[in-house]
Amino acid sequence: MAKYPDGPLFLGLDLSTQANKASLLSATLELLAEVSVNFDKELPHYGTKGGVLLGPEGSGQVYSPVFSAVESFDRLADKIEKAGWPTQKIKAVSAAGQQHASVYWSKQAPELLAGLSASKGPLAKQLEQAFSRTIIPNWQDSSTTQECREFEAHVGGAAKLAKITGSRAYERFTGPQILHFRKKDPRAYENTARISLVSSFVTTMLCADGEVKGIDESDACGMNLWDLSTPQRGWSQPLLELVAGSTGEAAQQLYQKLGAVESDGGRIVGRVGKWWQERLGFSDDCLVCPATGDNPATLMSFALSPREALVSLGTSDTLLIPAPRFKPSEAFHVFYHPARVAAPNATEAQSSSQPKSSTITSGREDYIDTPNCYFNMLVYKNGSLARETIRDQHNDQSWENFDEAVQAGWLADPASSSSPTQMGFYWLKEEIIPPKARGTYLYKRTGSQWEEVDEFAEPGRHHAQSIVASQLLSFKSRVGAILNSSDNAPSSENDAGLLRIHASGGASSNLTLLQTMADVMNCAMVKPSNEKEQGGNACSVGAAFKARWAWERATVTGRQKVPFEVCVQEARQAAAGGKGEGMAGFKVLASPDTARARGWDSFVSQWNELERRALTKSGQ
Ligand code: XUL
Description:
Elements: E1 9-15, E2 19-26, E3 31-38, H1 39-42, E4 53-54, E5 62-65, H2 66-83, E6 90-97, E7 102-105, H3 109-114, H4 123-126, E8 135-137, H5 145-155, H6 158-165, H7 174-184, H8 186-190, E9 194-197, H9 198-207, E10 215-216, H10 217-220, E11 226-227, E12 234-235, H11 237-244, H12 249-258, E13 261-262, E14 270-271, H13 274-280, E15 287-288, E16 292-293, H14 294-302, E17 308-313, E18 317-323, E19 333-336, H15 346-350, E20 374-380, H16 384-394, H17 399-411, E21 422-427, E22 439-446, E23 449-453, H18 459-484, E24 500-504, H19 511-521, E25 524-528, H20 538-555, H21 564-575, E26 586-590, H22 594-617
Parallel strand pairs: 1-6, 6-15, 6-16, 10-13, 17-24, 24-25
Antiparallel strand pairs: 1-2, 2-3, 4-5, 5-8, 7-9, 11-12, 14-15, 17-18, 18-20, 19-20, 21-22, 22-23, 25-26
Helix pairs in contact: 5-6, 5-7, 7-11, 11-12, 14-20, 16-18, 17-18, 18-19, 18-22, 19-22
Bound molecules: D-xylulose.
């Protein structure tokens, strides 16, 4: 036990596509231990691959069995027990879950949840009758194209839907998924008492007190159902009517199935349930606050300062940027920030029966903090995998060769960043940004004219350079649009740039890529300097940060209104013996070169024009 520090500990969970993970943190936010349960390997009887099952060929269906998620809690408990975690010292828990995916509870669920006990056998057995649908549609599902069309048509188009819900319609978003479910299986829909997101499913499992816990407002924004366009926010009545199939009572019933939404991610919504206490020795005063989506949780794990962003260079490339105002666009997603406290939303104001948990104070009274109340998310499907395909086709499957090819361009000759002679668009999979773009389009410049070509003169060099430049210029172009909108301007000097971007994900170890990103985005690329914060699972770590914040607000006198980032900063300073820089605990991996940055700046409008040409060609 000696390896665990004195004082309170905090737990973050992450129910992702492939695994259920847990991170244990100290009060100073140091990562102490992690365990995880891999669905394919450790629950092989469900037959999943990559955590999911596929529907018939061409159906686009991707889903996981709800009981594999349920059973993963038994296995997670086995691992926590085996690792000897001092669970009685854990003072608060929160969680992250894959975004958009939904769980359907039966009418018996509350009673079964309230009766969960470690002495009654496996969870899957105890909750056998708790679900009205035995699958969880996964975020990779694309079976709802028709429903997406209905969503956009219902409100007057994609741009209008983005203005209401923060995103145009997407197949993986929960609203089109629920509509699909109701049409395909009306009886099961009818038998559904409550609909959770994966995040609120985990909150419900953690408390297991007979109450299906509310969806977190940040995660609600990934549903195409949550109306962010008014100061009150709330479920969109026209969209509820579309999904429910009629106005009046059916829409009202759907409202009840979705329930009230938690606008304060640091509110205490319950305590860990009896099952956790009996099974793992949790104390009965261990607090639970709402779980959120995996991307919002990752954002929290970086506790960004103003004018900072976060990029995850993984299978897909994802950029997250906190923003003070709701400025929707068809080109990206807008979400409510997972660790802000705005005025209560309409569902909370209307909620007739206050949840039982409201008896636990969490300092919500008149605590409204508004800076950076939202965050924007850009998701590109053609990220690392597309770069890898180019590497395999043109650079002998070697990152070294790929990097050398990139370095021979603008890094060797800064002037070439303002005047590349070739450019390409590599939408190998149907893209999210720009929506539905598909195909590969190559262009060569002679003088001031760009012409489309079938192949480059030097494929080895030119493809590697083009894909890196083009992917990063897409970031630049879209981020420019986000930051240049007058309300989002980060400083009064009208300096709309980012100061720095925190890099994560596999490709963030590629310094050639990071240097080019620093030049194109004209800001520093950084990583945490504290080794102890590296290597952890960002989603469960971010969730544990939130648990730490919620605990401090609920239990420490005078701290009810401490902002999330301040709480994180102070905890990190304490970890560094009061000497550390707290939030600024990062190391710079690449700084922008002035000449190259200027070059990319002057080139971006030409790149925009080329993208328009490529899109026209791809039929968009
Ligand atoms: C985001 C998205 C994925 C999932 C992964 O919109 O669909 O990143 O959240 O779990």
